[in-house]
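forwarding from the other thread:

> can someone predict this with NAI?

sure thing
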Amino acid sequence: MAEPVFERLALVGAGLIGSSIARIARARGDIARVVVVNARTEKTLGRIAELGIADVCEIDPVRAVEGADCVVLCAPVGAYASLAAAIGPHLAPGAIITDVGSTKQSVIRDVGPHVPQGVHFVPGHPMAGTEFSGPDAGFSELFEGRWCLLTPPVGTDAAAVQRIKAFWERCGATVSIMDPEHHDRVVAIVSHLPHLIAFTICGTADDLADETRKEVLQFAASGFRDFTRIAASDPVMWRDVFLNNREALLEMLARFTEDAQAMARAVRWGDASYIEDKVMRGRKIRQALIDINQA
Ligand SMILES: NC(=O)C1=CN([C@@H]2O[C@H](COP(=O)(O)OP(=O)(O)OC[C@H]3O[C@@H](n4cnc5c(N)ncnc54)[C@H](O)[C@@H]3O)[C@@H](O)[C@H]2O)C=CC1
Ligand SMILES: O=C(O)C(=O)Cc1ccc(O)cc1
């Protein structure tokens, strides 16, 4: 078996993503010799111990990162600044600090200043997840065949980037390196805006009269059902994502609103070919996505 990428891997946050990494690292011998999991509450800590997915469980993030050669922040992005301020001074010289947060410019802004000299910072974002959260939601196939985007600031140690790349590849992902600003615009359209739309449409349906609401749920066809799956996601995580990708999300929302207005106009004026064209375009995009995933 290949040598482990890390000696001691510390995961700060033990929800869907953190516990998935822990499961994979414990199941494979080539990611880390020791897996440390930091959970915020005694309850989660107990659950991690019961699940047997960590070598060491710690409630104190500072103790969790001591002696680790890799630290992965796996908490909601709004918690990163205070977490980084707390653990920064305790990071081992030569260690790598990385993360899994859904936004990248904010993470660089919030974590960067707390990374001491001699510690490498390689921000990351696995493009894989579900609507479920917490330690029981994780599973070891989560990253299989999915992308992981890395956004190392200019001048980041190339060897540190390579180790994080190897780490994600052993988790089953394919790595792509991206500029953080570009990352935030891309995920704003492919992930953050779809979530915003899902939360909004569920709210709109819920605002309707009681009788209608019952019917909405009773006769919900797959279109609405697909939205409700996404809308079942964690409120704290998504609050933090929206507030930390404000600019790109608002830009994409403005573009979407313009396009939705154009569609409304076509519906009002009976512009059949406009509507047909848009539906056809959607179909083509869906087919292209299927083709990419099968290639
Ligand atoms: N859920 C998803 O589908 C994906 C999430 N992400 C990112 O991964 C990160 C973690 O998300 P999930 O694992 O889904 O969330 P989760 O809600 O399942 O787990 C979050 C973990 O962070 C801990 N935590 C919460 N607030 C904290 C604080 N103030 N200080 C320390 N720890 C705290 C929680 O106790 C929990 O263990 C987020 O930054 C999210 O943006 C990235 C890709 C996919
Ligand atoms: O469950 C879904 O549909 C997702 O879109 C999962 C997801 C959520 C957040 C991310 O930053 C990346 C992936």
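The pocket of 3-(4-hydroxy-phenyl)pyruvic acid (ligand 2) is lined by residues 102, 127-131, 191, 230 (CB under 6 Å). thats all i got for now
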